[in-house]
Design a protein that fits this description.
With 319 residues, this protein is an all-beta fold. The protein is 1% helix and 54% strand. It contains 1 helix and 29 strands. The strands form 8 sheets. Strands 24, 25, 26, 27, 28 and 29 form a 6-stranded antiparallel beta sheet that branches. It has a 5-stranded antiparallel beta sheet with strand order 4-3-6-1-16, with no helix packed on it. A hairpin with a 6-residue loop joins strand 24 and strand 25. The radius of gyration is 23 Å and the shape is globular. About 11% of the residues have low confidence.
C-alpha cells in the first residue's frame, strides 16, 4: 500500500494492521515489513521477520520502529517468507469493492510494481507530534497512467531549522544584522547566534529531539528591535539507521519494556502524552535496560534515549 503523509510532515511511522488469508492452509507463517520512499523508490527501513498469530485473521499493531520517513509518500509492503510450490504465505486479503488500486512490488527492484484493481486490507498508523496521538494514514490512489503525484519530487531538509526574517528598514536607521534566540522545549530563550543574511540555519539541530523554538531581532546602529514571532519546529528523532541497531519490545506493552542496542545507553526519559516525565534514568552505560511502566495509565509514551551516537525518539503504547 502507498500512503499520503503530506498532512503530517513531522509524523513517525508506528505500526500496521493487516488481514491475511491462508487459503485453507493452517500453521505459522513468517513475513517481513518494508517501508519505502515512494517518491524515490528507495528503502527507508525493514522490520522482521515476524510470525503470524493465527489463520485468516487481522495482525494488529505490528511495530514499525517509530521511523521518521522524511517523505510525503510512503509505501508499506509485506514480504511473505513461507513458501509452498504454488504460493507464498501469509497472503494479504483484499476487497474488490473498494477499488483502492493497491500496489504489488518486486522487493529487490521497487520500480517493478503492478497496480491491483482492489484494495489490500492494510492500515498504517502514524504518530502526529502536533497533537500527540496516533492517526490512521490516508491511502494514496495510484495508477498506471502516469499520475504525476505518484512520483512527485520531494526534497526534505533534514536536521536544519531555517528562519526568514524580512528586513524592515526604518527611516534614519541603518540595519547591521540579526540576533537569533533559541529555546529547546520549555527552557528559557537564550542568545544563539548573529546573522547578516535573511536566512539562518541552525547547525545540528536535527540531532536533538523535541520542540525547537526561535525568535529573531534586528540590529540597528541605534539598538535592537522588538522580537519577531516565535517559530517552532518539532524534531522527531534521527533515524534508527544513523544510531545503530536498537530493539524496543514488546510494543504494545502491559508493564515492562526492554531496550537493547549495540550502542551504550547513557541516559533515558519516558514522557507521557501530557508531556510529563514519568521515568528518568541517568548514567546507565549499558547496552540494555528495562523500564517498568506498570503503574502508569494506558496510552502513548515517548522514550527519549541517549546513546554514544546521539539521541533517538521512540514511541510505545501501553495497553
Amino acid at each position: 500500500m502507498v500512503y499520503d503523509l503530506s498532512a503530517y510532515p513531522d509524523a513517525t511511522i508506528e505500526m500496521v494492521d493487516f488481514h491475511h488469508g491462508s487459503w485453507g492452509n493452517t500453521g505459522t507463517w513468517y513475513y517481513k515489513m518494508h517501508v519505502v520512499d515512494w517518491n524515490t523508490f528507495t528503502s527507508i527501513a525493514e522490520f522482521g521477520p515476524f510470525t503470524t498469530t493465527g489463520d485468516d485473521i487481522y495482525e494488529i499493531g505490528v511495530p514499525l520502529g517509530s521511523v521518521a520517513p522524511n517523505s510525503n509518500l510512503v509505501g508499506v509492503f509485506m514480504e511473505p517468507m513461507s513458501f509452498d510450490p504454488s504460493n507464498a504465505y501469509p497472503v494479504l486479503s483484499c476487497d474488490e469493492s473498494l477499488q483502492g488500486l493497491s500496489v504489488r512490488v518486486y522487493i529487490p527492484d521497487l520500480t517493478a510494481y503492478l497496480v491491483e484493481t482492489a484494495d489490500f486490507l492494510m492500515d498504517l498508523w502514524i504518530f502526529n507530534p502536533e497533537d500527540k496521538k496516533l492517526v490512521q494514514a490516508k491511502k494514496f490512489k495510484v495508477d498506471n497512467t502516469g499520475n504525476p503525484d505518484v512520483r512527485k519530487p520531494y526534497t526534505p531538509v533534514i536536521g536544519e531549522i531555517t528562519l526568514n526574517q524580512k528586513e524592515n528598514v526604518k527611516e534614519n536607521k541603518s540595519l547591521t544584522g540579526y540576533n537569533v534566540y533559541y529555546a529547546h522545549e520549555s527552557e528559557p530563550f537564550s542568545f544563539l547566534d548573529q546573522a547578516t543574511d535573511t536566512t539562518y540555519s541552525h547547525e545540528n539541530a536535527g540531532l536533538i529531539t523535541g520542540m525547537h523554538n526561535y525568535y529573531v531581532t534586528s540590529n540597528y546602529d541605534e539598538g535592537e528591535s522588538e522580537p519577531s514571532n516565535i517559530a517552532s519546529e518539532y524534531i522527531s528523532g534521527i533515524s534508527e539507521n544513523e544510531i545503530g541497531n536498537m530493539e524496543i519490545y514488546p510494543n504494545p506493552i502491559l508493564d515492562v519494556v526492554t531496550i537493547e542496542t549495540d550502542q551504550r545507553i547513557v541516559n533515558l526519559q519516558v514522557i507521557n502524552s501530557n508531556g510529563l516525565v514519568v521515568f528518568e534514568e541517568q548514567n546507565i552505560n549499558l547496552n540494555n535496560t528495562q523500564i517498568d511502566l506498570g503503574k502508569q495509565a494506558s496510552g502513548i509514551f515517548n522514550i527519549r534515549i541517549e546513546t554514544e551516537e546521539g539521541w533517538i525518539n521512540r514511541k510505545i503504547i501501553k495497553k
